[in-house]
Amino acid sequence: MEIIARENAFTLFHQNQAIIAHTDAKPFIYLGVGKETIKQHYGDFRIKDKVVNKIPMKLEAVNGDYVKFSNCGYTLSFRIKQTVTGIRFEAFEMSPEVNRVYFMLKSTKEERFFGCGEQFSYLNLKGRNFPIWTSEPGVGRDRTTLITFQADQMGVGGGDYYTTNYPQPTFISDQKYLFHLQTTFYSDFDFSEDAETQITVWGKPESITIDSGNSYLELMDIITDKFGTQPMLPDWLLDGITLGMQGGTETVYEKMRVAKEYGIKVNAVWCQDWVGKKITSFGKRLFWKWEKDDQQYPGFEKLIEDLNKEGIQFMAYINPYLLEGTHLFEHAAKNHYFIKRSNGEDYIADFGEFHCGTMDFTNPDAMTWYKNLIINNMINLGIKGWMADFGEYIPVDAVFYNGKTGFEMHNEYPALWAKCNYEAVKDSGNLGKIFYFMRAGGIGNQKYCTMMWAGDQSVDFTIHDGLASTIPAAISLGLMGNGLTHFDIGGYTSLFGNIRTEELMLRYLEYAVFTPYMRTHEGNRPAENFQYDQSDNCLKQFAIFSNLRSTLLPYIKHVVQENADNGLSATRPLFMHYDTPECLDIAYEYLFGRDLLVAPVYREGVTEWEVFLPDDQWVHLFSKKAYTGGTHRVPAALGNIPVFYRRGSAFEALFASITK
Prior knowledge:
Elements: E1 2-6, E2 9-14, E3 17-22, E4 29-41, E5 44-56, E6 58-63, E7 66-71, E8 74-82, E9 86-94, E10 100-106, E11 113-117, E12 129-132, H1 146-154, E13 167-173, E14 177-182, E15 187-190, E16 196-201, E17 207-212, H2 216-227, H3 235-238, E18 241-244, H4 249-262, E19 266-270, E20 277-279, E21 284-286, H5 300-309, E22 313-318, E23 321-323, H6 327-334, E24 348-350, E25 355-358, H7 364-377, E26 385-388, H8 406-409, H9 413-427, E27 435-438, H10 445-448, E28 451-453, H11 470-479, E29 485-486, H12 502-512, H13 536-551, H14 553-566, E30 571-572, H15 581-584, E31 590-592, E32 596-598, E33 608-613, E34 618-620, E35 626-627, E36 630-635, E37 643-646, H16 652-656
Parallel strand pairs: 18-19, 19-22, 22-26, 26-27, 27-28, 28-29
Antiparallel strand pairs: 1-2, 2-3, 4-5, 4-10, 6-7, 7-8, 8-9, 9-17, 10-16, 11-13, 12-15, 13-14, 14-17, 15-16, 20-21, 23-25, 24-25, 30-31, 31-32, 32-37, 33-36, 34-35, 34-37
């Protein structure tokens, strides 16, 4: 990567391709002033911008490694620093009245872009714009569908192709360079134009880095160095399946009795309602007080002890909110641990029929108190894992302990929430023994979150919000350095008559075997939706696939260890190891590690599936039929997910031992 400068102009080249080309006639940078409107409804946001002006910047001066741009009274300067793998723009300074910065990158119509966090609808981002703002993804996520329309009528809950819990201002180009904008401000990555990419940030950037690699594997090394890696998962987590359930102590004992009777390999029970429950119009909600509920779970410690004797762990739930009226809420309010309004009052959030305070993790005392709450009320009781939910709801007009507004902290908050959980586990000496999983994220989650999960999919086969959406989501997260993620087996959101079927549950089940973690969820309306233990056939399938998971355990441990050691995602795009144009366009297949290719069935009522295989020698995991590269139609009835192993794999003998 090199910069060639001439009078009033410069060009940044990567492997003889111009990434940046600045001239007075076609500038790299624009400065402007905008006036945004941000409407919030729970975790959903409607954001609009009125551009007051947008001024092209001219290169005014170069002083060593500092460059200065100016025009019409606006100025911007930064330092250009050469790095081992590319360049870095840092130490930005700009006119105080400016609140919009626009960067123009060169592109081509054929160029592909990947990343920008967790993207559920499109793996290749070219042709669309992607706002970087953590939010609820919405229901349906498709403006052409009835379910999205219905959700919007409830407020602003329908979502769109770009709405995501985990956005990140980072992308990879198929030209083998990595672009990262270091900022927590709202930004927008617009890939819609053929010849250029426009990146907008609503504030002063901290830095921009552009790194060059010769392969995607080299780029992943750079991402690992930049963001860190997730720690190794506990061994118990990788073997078998976690069953989500609610209802109390006796329900857990009974469901475990049935699971044992059917031979289901259970590694944990996940009981969200360990804190008690609250019924709302949306469905069954949890009582947010983060203490065991002795009324619903009598003999809590004995239950954990009895489960442990069977090799089963107990998992729970927590989020960064405290329910008004509880003693924990009163303690936090008294000590000023909540985010505030501009008048100094606690910013109490309405979550729909109950009200909560939001923990301010920029306050060191609040962070310490909440970490100790996790240690004392969860870890010390023997809880070995939990969902660390939420993180997206920070209102823009909030005020934090560090003096920043909610607008500045909104995208940063999920990483602070992850850090709180990470330090609780680390400080208690349990890294690698206890884990937690999150849906919200941003820059920093890579180091502080032991695992992600895909959030709240609809209980259906839709592309943008159903089973299929979890595939590009996992791939794109992995490309951003979050190599461990999973999903709710069966999906979660049931609204407007959208009900989970047994077929959907089983398609999720067979797919989940080939992910870092298997876990079911009852969904937001358990009584209306099919559950894993409601048919003899489903229970038998759970036994088959949970035990298949155990058979594959040596390979699964290897894949997860690779992620811990060098940041190489468990879920990888085909182009990570097969750098061909065809592989760049495959969004709904993936490599689980280096040696297994997985093509989940994401449509209803099919018995065959079309699969693209890269140029290599492949063997169908169940039939043992050999295939070469190309497109093939293969059997795909329920229970026969298209999975292929690579000839020459160090685990070939293990794969060959697996029968249908």
